[in-house]
Amino acid sequence: MSESVNGIAFAILAGAAILGAVGMLTTRNVIHAAFWLLEVMIAVAGLFLLLQAEYMAVVQVLVYAGAVSVLMLFVIMLTLRRREDAVRPVEVSVAGALMAFVFGGVLFLAIARYGDRVAQMPEVAPDTAALGVLLFTRWVLPFEVASLVLLVAIIAAVWWSREEE
After folding, report:
1. Most exposed: 49, 53, 135, 152, by fewest CB within 10 Å?
2. Do 18 and 96 lie in a common domain?
């Protein structure tokens, strides 16, 4: 029973991620595209939960769905001068379609050739608590440096996008 439930949940989440990606690429409004990207990130977090990777799901929601999406929306709203700038033209590129087709073909061949190999899983999976203790005891300084770099980048983006007096 649980395998069929996991299969149904995977199909729903994978379909949501793919439809969100298509929606992000086809919408003309950049703010709507940011919200479609948020939907994709939430669906990917659900896929991580199906894989029993709780830490990756939490990071996906907090960092990508939360921080990156909010940052993208702030940047879009700070840099747009007029409402008309939020609408982008739809351009159909034959070269882009050809590159996507070639990439899809290479991806299909790689999966067909190497798809039957299975990675060896460890005996005991590390838990989220042990990873959190390790992250906040041995990796505190790089974590704080990364947060300061992101703060400086946000301040620079706000300063750069202000109107000249």
Report:
1. 152
2. yes
Strand partners, 87: 29
User: Tokens 């739809």 correspond to what residue?
Assistant: 90
Q: Specify whether 92 is located in the same domain as 25.
A: yes
User: pLDDT digits over 28-68, tens only?
Assistant: 888 888 899 999 999 999 999 998 888 889 989 998 888 88
pTM attached to this predicted model = 0.61
The first and second tokens of residue 21, run together, are: 């990606």
Phi, psi at 81, each rounded to 5°: -90, -40
Q: Residue 29 pairs with which residues in a beta bridge?
A: 87
Same domain, 67 and 142: no
Tell me, what's the pLDDT at 165? 58
The residue range of the domain holding 137 is: 126-165
Residues of the chain with pLDDT under 50: 1
Nearest Cα neighbor of 25 from 12, 8, 42, 37 is 37
Rounded distance between C-alpha atoms, residue 55 and residue 60, angstroms: 8
Q: How many domains does the chain have?
A: 2
